[in-house]
Amino acid sequence: MHQMLVEDLQEEPKPSLSLYRKLFKCKNLSFHRPKKDQCSLCSTYRERTDDIKANLHETYTTHILQKQSFRAKRSERKQEAQKDALTIAFATFDLQQLIPIIKLARRRQPYIVTALSYSDFLDFKALSQNLRLLSVRKDDTGEMVDWRQMMELSFMKTDPNKFFFKTDHTAVNSRSLTLRRQVSGELHSQILPLNVTQPKISQEKYNDLMTLTAGDTPVIRLPEFVSFYRSLHH
After folding, report:
1. How far apart are CA 218 and CA 227, in angstroms?
2. What is the rounded CA–CA span in Å between residue 169 and residue 166?
3. Alpha carbon 207 to chain centroid, angstroms
4. How far apart are CA 83 and CA 121, in angstroms?
5. Which distant-in-sequence residues (6+ apart) come within 8 Å of 101 by Cβ?
6. What is the pLDDT along the chain (234 residues), one digit of tens a residue?
7. What residues pair up with 193 in beta bridges, in sequence order?
8. Phi, psi of 20 (to 5 degrees)
9. Which residues are registered as beta bridge partners of 184?
10. Which domain of life is it from (predicted)?
11. pTM (predicted TM-score)
């Protein structure tokens, strides 16, 4: 924020970082840190006029029901996985859950972070294209399938070629889809590395990253991080 202020101010002299911090402490000022990202639909519904709320009422009500159903099922599935960790695995892909993890990383017992190299990533997209998985357009009952609308997925180890899915968190029953072999001949299912060589970024992007490591108040300060960004292939 101080760097943005300095760049925006036209007059001289510009306030130093120490003065900036001192002013905030003296005035008891701070920046609000939301616990999670604000939903655009919920924010719009709360802040708009009664006429706009009336138009959004049905959409907003459905949205709230979906959210409540998802949270209840997430808690239920989590408890099931904790009781039977050997046979049940549960994963939720909710970016809002990353915010508490970032906060926990600064406590006395932080998460162990494992650095990954470009050679550690595998190309599952190429595998799915080789198997032509997304070419399946109908479920086991013949109903059309829109992969983009899937919200919940369930897999059974006893039947690896079938999975169950829902396109609505409030739905009681799941639909099933059997993935049959979509390629002829022997199936080579080896998962190849995503990157054979180190990825290369553009010179413009590299220059932008370097600005974050330079100056009196760099955004990226830790030496190991600075070294990483400066060593990027460009």
Report:
1. 13
2. 7
3. 26
4. 31
5. 111
6. 778 788 888 778 888 888 888 888 888 887 776 656 667 788 888 888 888 888 889 999 999 999 899 889 888 888 988 888 888 888 877 666 665 666 666 667 777 778 888 889 999 888 888 877 778 889 999 999 999 899 899 998 888 888 999 999 999 899 999 876 555 444 456 788 999 888 899 999 999 999 999 887 788 888 888 888 998 999
7. 122
8. -60, -45
9. none
10. Eukaryota
11. 0.57
Order of all β-strands in the sheet with 175-178: 152-155, 162-166, 175-178
* DSSP character string of the chain: -HHHHHHH--SSSPPPHHHHHHHHHHTT------SSPPPHHHHHHHHS-HHHHHHHHHHHHHHHHHHHHHHHHHHHHHHHHHHTTTT-------GGGHHHHHHHTTSSSPPPPPP--GGG-B-HHHHHHHHTGGG--B-TTS-B--GGG--EEEE-TT-TTEEEEES-TT-SSPEEEE----SSSS---PPPBS-SS-----HHHHHHHHHHH-SSS-S---HHHHHHHHT---
pLDDT of residue 205: 93
Contact 152, 166 (CB under 8 A): yes
User: What pLDDT score was predicted for residue 175?
Assistant: 95
